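A protein record pairs a chain with a discrete description of its three-dimensional fold. The following entry can be read in just this way:
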Amino acid sequence: MRLSLTVLPAVRRLLLGVAVLPLAVACSSNGSGGQDAEALNERKINEADITDKQEADAKFLVRAASNALLEVELGKLAQARATAPAVRAFGTDVVKSRLDLLAALRTLAAAKQLAVPSALGDDEQSAYHEASTQTGSQLDKRLMALLVKVQKQDEDAFDDMKDDAYDGDIRGLAAKYHAPLEEQLDAAKEAAEAAEKLP
């Protein structure tokens, strides 16, 4: 028998929430990355006999939050150290938009009793480190190349999930944020072009 997270009987939901709550608190208090959130969600999903589509929903939330955390940090780096005004301005925009997206992702994940990362995971830390060790125009170029890559992943994922997510609330979130993400990807490409013109 397949059960939906949104239609679990009250007792089952309460028991599952009690079992997951200590893990979620531990996960959020130690600054976990994407792998920890995925492991927590996988354990919950296995216990609840969840469908593959529901598992894809959970993975989407984790990946979207991981990307948003990385984009916030890259945006801050652009604000602080980029040489091109277009790259600095884009950094300001991306920090604001991704903090808004992160808040929405965290609220929705909490409502669905799912975990999302609260800090950069290993892959994101490595990507950030690679960009942050650059200087001058090379920093601008590396930052924008990375931001375009991550924002393309975002745009693709939100485009897919606005139609394909199992959960209606996740479909709604993906639909709400898809167009702004698409616009910001275009802006990222423009800032990347400006960075590429630097000596």
Summary: Helices lie at 10-29, 34-48, 52-81, 85-111, 122-132, 136-164, 168-196.
